Amino acid sequence: MLPVLCFGIIVPLALIVAVLGIWKNPSRWRLFFPMLVYVLFVGAYCYIPGTNSNVDLVRYFPEIELYGEMSLSEAFSYADDVLYARDFLFWLCGHLHATHLVPAITTAAVYGVAGYISCDSAERCDAKCYIGGILLFQLMMLPYISIINNIRNVSGFSLIILAAYLDIVKQKKTIWVWLCYLCGATMHLSCFVLLVFRILSRLSKKLFEAVLLLPLVFSSLIYLLYDYSSAIAFGGAIGNSIQTVIRKLYKYLTNTNTTYAIKAQTSQIFILNRVTMMFGVILALILIYYGIRNRKKLFGEDLRFHAFLGMIASMTLASNVFAVPNYWRFAAAFYVAAGCLFVPLMKHRRQLTFPIRLTLDASLLLGPLGLFVQYWQARTYGYGQWAIRIVLTDYLTIAYDIIKGIITWG
């Protein structure tokens, strides 16, 4: 009864019960983990960007309100692209007059998918004792405030990763799995990259070495695609979307002199974050390559999902060519699914060779460094007022806002 009361009423108490429950009784993660996601959902709902903040969320709030003045057909055609999941989410929350519901939903999706994959992997490996540790590691490596501000990209990645996990590992081909693929792909244009990786994962052993070469040829590939982007003649929203992706990549590649690009290349905390994420995915690629090539019994039937995960890690490295820190989005996508990699390795640690054990330990020790970067980048934010808003908010408050939005729909 206590978990139910905590889930519904007192957010700080819900957090305490969720953490203690997961840590002391990880086998009951299905009871306690949703409470943790609920707390993260409320935290995102109560988050207000800084006055002078230049983040996506500041731009999206008035855009969501604009969607609230449109019909659904107008919303789908507003941006002349194929991002219908974004259009529907913005349209729905705009009509409900609940703009803060958007970051709450997308943030809960990211951490919900990350935790589900980790907990389910631990259960499948009969290693539930690692659930608390791996969830803590993911919270350290997935920057909470950045994910709240990001809205579309990482949440879209997470939906595709969830679909791939259910599809490949759980062998589920239901309509919900295909809906996750569709919603993820139509949330952000860069999510199409993960769909390509999902297709290529079918040839995991044959193509994995080739994918590792992606960081070496990525910049040349962007220049090549840009030179021929005007020749793409698919027409309509699909053609426009493909051209937009190519031109954005070219813009990111050549963006070296703006204020943000210069800050990203000179700021010590930006450099530390870049080094942390790049080092993390390099170590992960070593572990994935070891598992795919030498220890099939380590990953078992999950081999293709690990190849998919390796492609995301490789794309993170490839994104290092950009002066602006776009790499973190793919790094976040990697850590969303990282539990499926680390849990079996942790369970069979004693059977690993010494260099691989050292690589695994170094990967996990990056967690405190990731947490420090999170704190330092957002250290000036008004956490006291945010905490007060969280304490005064519960599911009844949010439900009231939604019901009021339904009554005043329009």
Structural account:
The chain has 410 residues and is mostly helical. It has one domain (2-407). It is 76% helix and 0% strand. It is built from 25 helices and no strands. The chain has helices at residues 2-8, 11-24, 29-45, 56-67, 72-78, 84-95, 101-124, 131-141, 144-150, 153-169, 175-185, 191-200, 204-212, 214-227, 236-254, 259-266, 268-294, 296-299, 303-318, 327-336, 339-347, 354-364, 366-377, 383-391, 395-407. Helix 7 packs parallel to helix 10, helix 14 crosses helix 19 (303-318) and helix 17 packs antiparallel against helix 23. It is globular, with a radius of gyration of 21 Å. The two termini are 39 Å apart.
Can you describe this structure in just a few lines?
The chain has one domain (2-407). It is built from 25 helices and no strands. With 410 residues, it is mostly helical.
Descriptive tags:
mainly alpha; 0% strand
- Total strands: 0
How many domain modules?
A: 1
Structural class: mainly alpha
Rg, nearest Å? 21 Å
Mean pLDDT level:
88
Could you tell me how far the N terminus lies from the C terminus, measured between alpha carbons in angstroms? 39 Å
Give the low-confidence spans: none
Percent helix: over 70%
Shape: globular
Number of helices: 25
Helix and strand pattern: HHHHHHHHHHHHHHHHHHHHHHHHH
Strand content: under 5%
Q: How can the largest sheet be summarized?
A: none
